[in-house]
Here is the input.
Amino acid sequence: MRRQRQCLCRSRLCRPRHPPLKAQLVTLWPSHAGAEVDADPAAKVTGSTQPELSRILRGQFRSVSVERLLAMLTRLGCKVDIVVRPQGRTTESAVIHFA
Here is the structure.
């Protein structure tokens, strides 16, 4: 039997319910940066190189941090807000604006 990795939240074993955060961020790029993402101009705007941006858009983003992906999205004109709230509550929350 395969052993599950232990989750860092509350020391319970759990299975991921959502795709990894980096993958979710990269899937937002085409919809927010325009239908056609031309890697060369977009690389200049995001502060990366064309080959690096092409690798990221192909799903090879292991070496790129979440913070860097968020910075690239903001440079492409996206507004990024991180909302943290206790589970089950909709009124109490902390919002982090990434710019």
In short: Residues 21-98 form a domain with the 434 Repressor (Amino-terminal Domain) fold (CATH 1.10.260.40).
